[in-house]
């Protein structure tokens, strides 16, 4: 099933005459169908989530602010980004699409009240948690208890406390896992046509839920007095397990080489005929910090994340750099691409879109072990995460083994003076182009990596980047009372609740 068909299904099921109008959480659509089968809604919802999460323009601020990408010197530097001047109109698409998709998932829940539909119900619950966690990590307080209830007459949902939302999301994941494990023997089987992520493998869905739960709990690890809560929450699903090597949560609706039907990350940079999109690969270049880091340890993944600007030479720019002069476009590495190959950052038109990769899961587990939250061997999990990163980028486990033996404290687990810093720094490298919200969250909660070169623009609004996004202008326009009730919001000082720095 390709992206165009999936989008059509959502449109027929839930959208009215204007897609842009329905993207607001506080509007009701009088043309929505009274009931659409869950098996038709699920692939559309999964596709919408993955399309939003894998559109780099929704999260380019993360890559640019954290040393991973830069803006080509061939373009005027965007003042809002290089000066850290976020606007309410900045990056609001993800907010709107998330609530639209959440409504789709609510419809799946309504259509799955029969015990035989437990699998559909559990998946819908898990994916709503996935959406809400990312919303909280970007905006803090957001609509939750009154969200997704336009059909019940709640057109202007209140904003809930972010910490309270997080805690309830953990309980929702516990309930979803329990549903999966207790579903009846005659439960409706979910086919690959409906489940375009795990093809109906409910064991993997339970592991995905548990990994998502662990991620949320680890986010809170820097909070004073939170360890007891974290350990108790982990214990309730300790036997479920987490996503392991080869168990990535990847979405593929049947990408094909046609406009609007390709992998969303790829389609940001290339057209169906293989030519480049306007302001794509010529706009985004490599970031100086990650290039310097990878060059310093001869990391072979550098040639997959980026293309050499000449021979085997790689270079990147710092954000907003003016003095010394920025490297010219001809002397700066572009984002990694090789026509027809998925083993590069940009990949190919048919590359599956990641929601939570095995390598991210293994890094999270490694950190959880080091913090004493779960049992296991930190070194084994860390090295497995690096190995899976190599595999994801088209390299071999043997190459990973050689790299891990590098006599550098920033690579070799045994030599590292801080195992936590090692895990977080290598996670930053490995998730480039894969998981921007997690990269941003890790930096905000831990300050890692410590080598970030902040913007060199002389007119920056703050010495360091924003710690959150501002509420969308559309919310201010149509749900202003509830936005105002949250209080005064500062992009630099209104921290997400788990940020301890």
Walk me through the structure:
The protein contains 20 helices and 8 strands. The chain is globular, with a radius of gyration of 22 Å. A two-stranded antiparallel ribbon has the order 1-5. It is mainly alpha-helical and about 500 residues long. The protein starts with a helix and ends in a 15-residue tail after the last helix. Residues about 1-35 have low confidence and may be disordered.
Short description:
This protein is mostly helical. It has helices spanning 3-14, 19-22, 38-53, 56-65, 79-82, 93-110, 118-139, 162-181, 202-219, 227-235, 264-269, 288-296, 302-305, 358-370, 378-392, 397-404, 419-430, 436-446, 473-478, 480-486; strands at 69-71, 142-143, 159-160, 249-251, 284-286, 306-307, 334-335, 353-356.
**For the record, what CATH class of the domain at 3-252 and 352-357 and 434-454 and 466-486 applies?**
Mainly Alpha
Strand order of the largest sheet: 1-5
Q: Roughly how much helix do the residues carry, as a percent range?
A: 40-55%
Rough outline: globular
The CATH architecture of the domain at 3-252 and 352-357 and 434-454 and 466-486:
Alpha Horseshoe
If you compute it from the alpha carbons, what radius of gyration comes out, rounded to the nearest whole angstrom? 22 Å
Helix/strand class: mainly alpha
Q: Strand count, sense and closure of the main sheet?
A: 2 strands, antiparallel
Q: Strand share of the residues?
A: under 5%
CATH fold topology of the domain at 3-252 and 352-357 and 434-454 and 466-486: Serine Threonine Protein Phosphatase 5, Tetratricopeptide repeat
Uncertain stretches: 1-33
Question: Topology as H/E string?
Answer: HHHHEHHHEEHHHEHEHHEEEHHHHHHH
**First-last Cα distance:** 45 Å
């Amino acid at each position: 099933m390709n992206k165009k068909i999936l989008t059509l299904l959502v449109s027929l099921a839930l959208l009215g005459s204007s897609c842009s109008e329905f993207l607001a959480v506080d509007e009701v659509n009088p043309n929505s169908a009274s009931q659409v089968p869950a098996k038709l809604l699920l692939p559309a919802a999964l596709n919408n989530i993955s399309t939003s999460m894998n559109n780099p323009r929704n999260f380019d601020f993360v890559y640019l602010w954290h040393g991973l990408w830069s803006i080509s010197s061939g373009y005027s530097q965007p003042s809002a980004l290089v000066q850290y001047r976020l606007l309410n109109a900045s990056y609001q698409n993800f907010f709107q699409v998330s609530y639209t998709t959440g409504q789709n998932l609510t419809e799946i829940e309504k259509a799955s009240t029969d015990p035989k539909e437990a699998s559909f119900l559990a998946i819908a619950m898990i994916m709503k948690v996935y959406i809400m966690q990312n919303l909280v990590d970007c905006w803090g307080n957001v609509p939750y208890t009154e969200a997704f209830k336009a059909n019940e007459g709640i057109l202007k949902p209140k904003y809930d406390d972010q910490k309270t939302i997080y805690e309830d999301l953990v309980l929702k994941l516990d309930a979803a896992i329990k549903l999966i494990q207790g579903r009846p023997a005659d439960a409706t089987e979910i086919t690959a046509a409906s489940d375009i992520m795990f093809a109906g493998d409910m064991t993997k869905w339970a592991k995905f839920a548990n990994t998502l739960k662990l991620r949320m709990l680890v986010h809170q690890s820097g909070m004073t007095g939170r360890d007891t809560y974290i350990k108790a929450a982990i214990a309730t699903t300790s036997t479920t397990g987490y996503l392991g090597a080869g168990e990535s949560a990847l979405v593929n609706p049947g990408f094909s080489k046609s406009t609007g039907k390709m992998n969303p990350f790829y389609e940001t940079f290339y057209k169906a005929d293989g030519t480049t999109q306007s302001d794509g690969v010529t706009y985004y270049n490599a970031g100086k910090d990650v290039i310097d880091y990878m060059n310093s340890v001869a990391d072979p993944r550098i040639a997959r994340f980026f293309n050499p600007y000449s021979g085997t030479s790689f270079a990147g720019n710092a954000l907003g750099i003016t003095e010394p002069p920025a490297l010219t476009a001809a002397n700066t590495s572009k984002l990694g691409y090789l026509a027809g190959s998925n083993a590069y950052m940009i990949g190919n038109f048919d590359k599956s879109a990641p929601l939570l990769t095995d390598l991210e899961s293994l890094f999270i587990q490694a950190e959880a072990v080091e913090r004493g939250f779960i049992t296991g061997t930190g070194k084994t999990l860390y090295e497995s995460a690096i190995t899976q990163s190599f595999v994801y980028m088209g390299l071999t486990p043997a190459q990973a083994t050689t790299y891990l033996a590098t006599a550098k404290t920033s690579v070799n687990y045994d030599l590292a003076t801080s195992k936590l810093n090692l895990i977080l720094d290598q996670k930053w490298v490995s998730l480039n182009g894969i998981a921007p919200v997690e990269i941003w969250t890790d930096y905000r909660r831990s300050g890692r990596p410590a080598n970030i070169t902040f913007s060199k623009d002389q007119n920056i609004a703050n010495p360091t980047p924003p710690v959150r996004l501002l509420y969308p202008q559309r919310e201010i326009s149509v749900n202003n009372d509830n936005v105002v009730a949250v209080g005064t919001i500062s992009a630099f000082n209104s921290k997400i609740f788990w940020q301890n720095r």
